[in-house]
Amino acid sequence: MAAAAAAAVPGALGTLQAGRARLVAACCARLGPGWRLPGSVTGPRVAPAVWARGWTPAAGGGSAPRRGYSSEVKTEDELRVRYLEEENRGIVVLGINRAYAKNTFSKSLIKMLSKAVDALKSDKKVRTIIVRSEVPGIFCAGADLKERVKMNPSEVGPFVSKIRAVIDEIANLPVPTIAAIDGLALGGGLELALACDIRVAASSAKMGLVETKLAIIPGGGGTQRLPRAIGMSLAKELIFSARVLDGQEAKAVGLISHVLEQNQEGDAAYRKALDLAREFLPQGPVAVRVAKLAINQGMEVDLVTGLAIEEACYAQTIPTKDRLEGLLAFKEKRPPRYKGE
């Protein structure tokens, strides 16, 4: 094994090489059974195209054209999961719908989110996921404090851990995720958005990690993901002050990628998210997933290790049918027809 060989190298260099090999091996392990590292890292390339295995197709259903929905797989009072159809096929929308509680995280909503994410991460048909609100003017106002005040102190820690775990599950989804922030995103609501790959917001939206106002700290990953998104110093300033930013301010500091003037329907951010998701759809599904993994894993390590992770991930695209289809489509001057294989 590469890690064992590297460990045999004397001194700190051997320790560094061994650690790097373990990191790259762990990255490839996330690709699933049968994936191996490139020869330059741990041995000969053995890279069967297993990325697309083990997924279940989405169900069909009704329609709601105004929102771009045409297949509702599951509808709950507090969470709606919709698979889009026709030209939007492959896009899934997670819509939070707790209007009476400003979309705050309750025990039941967290269970629903966990169940939905668990199904989505193993669904071959899913290409991009949009997280949005079904409630005008609200994205998610964080934890349900009315429910929280009724908890015993011994219950608070485990429940916050469940919120953190669900947000981590969303961060670890294999496909691109987009947070469409059309309203208030405070505390855990912003932490949910930070777990998504891309964030878009209306200029009227309000965002902030405001937990210090309640004499606590962000517990859903905010102390870790906000500094990674906008830098340590500014993240500290925002968390220490519990400051709330509007869409323009959030764009200025790099918290979101796009800011839009809100429309009459109140869904400007969602419409932009849908446009972005449509841009992703024509690309190779395996390539997009592996690119996300390479970026996410590479950003947590030094450059040399990151480049090894990129090499390992690139190797997984070589034996795919999609790669050959891309070359053939280029030769024949036609759009490729990728199948995620």
UniProtKB/TrEMBL annotation:
It is found in: Mitochondrion. Keywords: Acetylation, Lyase, Mitochondrion, Transit peptide. One of its GO terms (cellular component) is mitochondrion. GO terms for biological process: fatty acid beta-oxidation. The keyword Mitochondrion applies. Its main location: mitochondrion. The keyword Transit peptide applies. One of its GO terms (molecular function) is mRNA 3'-UTR binding. InterPro entries: ClpP/crotonase-like_dom_sf, Enoyl-CoA_hyd/isom_CS, Enoyl-CoA_hydra/iso, Enoyl-CoA_hydra_C. PROSITE patterns: ENOYL_COA_HYDRATASE. Belongs to the enoyl-CoA hydratase/isomerase family. This is Methylglutaconyl-CoA hydratase, mitochondrial isoform X1. The lineage of its organism: Eukaryota, Metazoa, Chordata, Craniata, Vertebrata. The gene is AUH.
